[in-house]
Amino acid sequence: MLRNVLGHSVEMLWHKEPSLGAADAVVVPGGFSYGDYLRTGAIARFSPVMEAVQRFAAEGGLVLGICNGFQILCEAGLLPGALIRNRSLQFRCEHIFLKTATTESPFTSRIPPDKLLRLPIAHGEGCYFADPETLARLKTNNQVLWRYVNAQGEATEAANPNGALDNIAGICSEGRNVAGLMPHPERASESILGSADGRLIFESMIQTLTSRQTATAG
Amino acid sequence: MKAKIVVMPKKAVLDPQGKTVQNALAHMGFSGIGAVHVGKYLEIELAGTDKDAARQQIDAACHKILSNPVIEDYRFEIE
Known about the structure:
The structure holds two protein chains of two kinds. Chain A is an alpha+beta fold. Chain A is built from four helices and nine strands. Chain A has a single domain (25-211), classed as Rossmann fold. Helix content of chain A is 22%, strand content 22%. In chain A, a hairpin with a 5-residue loop joins β8 and β9. Chain A starts with 24 loop residues before the first strand and ends with a helix. Chain B contains two helices and three strands, in the order βαβαβ. In chain B, strands 2-1-3 form a three-stranded antiparallel beta sheet, with helices on one face. Chain B has one domain (2-78): Mth169, Chain: A (2-Layer Sandwich). Chain B starts with a strand and ends with a strand. Chain B is 35% helix and 27% strand. The chains are: A alpha+beta, B alpha+beta.
C-alpha cells in the first residue's frame, strides 16, 4: 500500500535480517507470526530483525505496529501494556470507527481532529490491557492515540469490539516515535476498499519525516 | 532434570476463557463451581544435575519469554 498507493519506496525485510538498511520508518505488519504460539508476538519479538528495530526506535526512528505488529511491539517493551484475548472470545472481523484522541503525534498529525476513521479490524486478541499505573501514565502523557467509538463518535461499551481498557485501539510510546494499533489502516487506503481513512495515518508519518528531512537539510 | 512451569493470568486481568469454562461447567450440571482460571502448563527437560543453576535459568526464561509479566504470573519446580 505504501508502495502502490502512496508511491514510496518500500523494502520488505525478512525476520532474520540483522539490519534495517537506510530505512526512514519501520512498519511492523500483522499476520500471526509464529502461529501466535505461547502468546501473540512473544516469539517474533526475539527475531533478529527486532534488535535492529529496537535500536532504530531508541534513536528516535518512527515505528508503527499494526495488529500482530502492535502485539509484537508490546511484547518487545517498545510500547506499554499487552493485548489479550477478546472479551467475547470471538475473532472479530468487521469495520469499526476510531476517534483520534490527539493529533500531537507523528502518526496522527494529518488527521482532522473531528474526523472518525472507518477501518477494518481482524483479530482474536486485541483487548488492550495495562495496570492502573500504566494506564494513568498513558493518559497523563497523552499517549492514547485512538479509541473505538460508535458512528456518533462516542466511546461506548457497544462500540468496543474486544473489551479493550478504556476503548483503547492504539497508543504511542512516551517518546511518541513508536505507535501501535489493532485496526488495519493499510486495508482502508483506497475508496474501492470501502474507506481511504487509513491513509491519513501513513500521510501523517510521511509529513513528519518530510519535515524532519527539511529541517536536517536546512 | 525436568522443570514444571505453570503460567496463570494475573488476578486483575480479564479471563474470558476461564469465565466461559465456568459457565459451561455450570450448564453441564456440575455443582458448586466457582471462578475458573485457564493458564498454561509447560514441562522442560533439562541436562545436568545442578538444581540451583537450573532454577536461575528457568526463572530468567519465565521472566523473559515464557510469561508476560504485564498480564501473567508464573511458578515452577525443578525435579
